[in-house]
Amino acid sequence: MVTNMQKVTLQTASSTAPDYTDIAIQLNDVGVWYGTNHAVESVSLDIYRNQITAIIGPSGCGKSTLLRCINRMNDLIPGTRVDGEILYHGVNIYQNGIDPVTIRRRIGMVFQKPNPFPKSIYDNVAFGPRVNRIKGNMDEIVEKALRQAALWEEVKDKLKQSGMALSGGQQQRLCIARAIAVEPDVILMDEPASALDPIATLKIEELMQELKQLYTIVIVTHNMQQAARVSDMTAFMSIDRSRREDRIGVLVEFDETKKIFTMPTQQETEDYISGRFG
Amino acid sequence: MANSHTPDLSLAAAPEARRRQIMGRFFAVLLLFCTLFGLVMLGVLLVQIGNSGTPYLVQIVKPGYSVDNIFEDHTDLHIGSTTIAINTGLLTNYHSRTPAKAGLKSALVGTLIVMALVALFTFPLGVGAAIYLEEYAPPNAITNFIKLNIYNLAGVPSIVYGMLGLAVFGRAFGLLEPDSAFVKTFHLNIHQSGIHQFNILGLPFQFPFGRSLMAGGLTMTLLVLPIVIISAREALRAVPGSIREAAYGLGATRWEVTSQQVVPVAMPGILTGMILALSRAMGESAPLLVMGAFIYVPFLPKNLWDQFTVLPLQIYNWISLPKPEFRQGLAGAGIMILLAVLLLMNGIAIYLRNRFEKKW
Q1: Are B246 and A116 an interchain contact pair (Cβ–Cβ within 8 Å)?
Q2: What is the SS3 string spanning chain B?
Q3: A87, B258, B288, B351: which has the fewest Cβ within 10 Å?
Q4: Which CATH class is domain A2-113+184-273?
């Protein structure tokens, strides 16, 4: 375990500076309202391809809200409004004529609590490819996704069993397999390990390092060590200090992870990562 | 250690603890009484009905005796020297003025057909409405108004549905009756009964539906539809939102999320609501009586446009006759048959529901 963690840390440290021309998603001045409640204000950041971008910050600062805007999951909550623009390979996903269903096929999501469908392991993975009419041998698609999610060896003999019968860590890897079965471009992860034990967490983190070869990953996490271990870029969000009672989430600092954790430019970031608040 | 607080370590019951214990036991007994009240009453009812009805269903005839002539058409089972005579005439005969020959054949068939129609109409309409209200309807004042009024409809007395059924399905608001303004204005050539019969693709059809099985089935559908909608909505609402999110997150459309993930999870609950609704419909007599269903039907329906009667109406008929053989014996036997059909139907539905649940 220790060696694994060291390996991950080393990888992070030795990762080359991101290629700034290769941007998957660009957030320009993004604000989010729930009804009249201003949840997030004026966030601008770039998400680079095949990198892991972590969003950290104290509870209630709008990390998950912001994440859920990137694949328009917030559309499902009535009264949600997003302003500014979110460009996916240069196209604003909030412009007229863009179908959120297409967005979500390209930008998949893994949730905080493992949420497999109450169906077999096989059907859990096959659901996405089926609804998206992905061509090919379904058995092969399912096997490939389960292999990529490092779950195949554990479940290959019980594909017909319920996904709900797996352990929490296995369920979350099943959810990751389900997400990658539709061959997305970007995977959004909303605190994917917060409901898991340390060993299962480590497995998910190792998996993310594998997956970033193929996918762009954005992860929201409460766990600063996790952000430091797995991510290439880190965005630190917090509640706007000048209007504390309004609880508006803002982006404080966005930079390479090693810079955020070693020499942040903002006092608030330093306070947070050194454990002085949050 | 400098703390001056010394906790009381004695385990002897404090005086008020005893009183609290007694209060707890008192409420436990009270709640048990509430539970048993209804059950005891049901038990009394079943015993009473069984007492008066059983002799009209089966007789155990000891060796050397013959079957009592309270029923004529019977099938005999011989176990050793004892004979068990079963009143099969009850199921195979129509109503008769002679109690020994009376049966409820047309009522049993009528009930089964009406129930099949109600199930056929109610399931798609009720589940469809529930899916719309839970998964599609925008959360606004109009939706809330509709939801509130479905609750109101569930509380409307059944006899009102009978009048509604008569006006809408039975008579189509009298639109085609000879003296209606519509018929007079357009000089339509209409049968005196006000019912227009014709064929569609070689199948008989009529409008309005009159006193037919179709009119009865639709009237009962109106009666139980609110119950089905409400229970199906509850079942859909109980499906965790995380399942919807997961499916949407994979690029599924609202229809795919609803039909492939949400409805299958809710199906056992939806079926439970259907069972309750059909049980309610099966026992109802008032709406069909108002709608114009017949009490004495000495034939089986040839098609859905024929006249019919149902078990509760046949029982009602027997109870209102002066002879005690009808009032007590046959009515009791009829109620036992009704309960048996009800339990059989519920049993099948529960079996189907459990199979649904076991699928994953």
Answers
A1: yes
A2: CCCCCCCCCCCCCCHHHHHHHHHHHHHHHHHHHHHHHHHHHHHHHHHHHHHHHHHHCEEEECCCCCCCCCCCCCEEEEECCEEEEECCHHHHCCCCCCHHHCCCHHHHHHHHHHHHHHHHHHHHHHHHHHHHHHHHCCCCHHHHHHHHHHHHHHCCCHHHHHHHHHHHHHCHHHCCCCCCHHHHHHCCCCCCCCCEEEEECCEEEEECCCCEHHHHHHHHHHHHHHHHHHHHHHHHHCCCHHHHHHHHHCCCCHHHHHHHHHHHHHHHHHHHHHHHHHHHHHHCCHHHHHHCCCCCCCCCCCCCCCECCCHHHHHHHHHCCCCHHHHHHHHHHHHHHHHHHHHHHHHHHHHHHHHHHHCC
A3: B351
A4: alpha beta
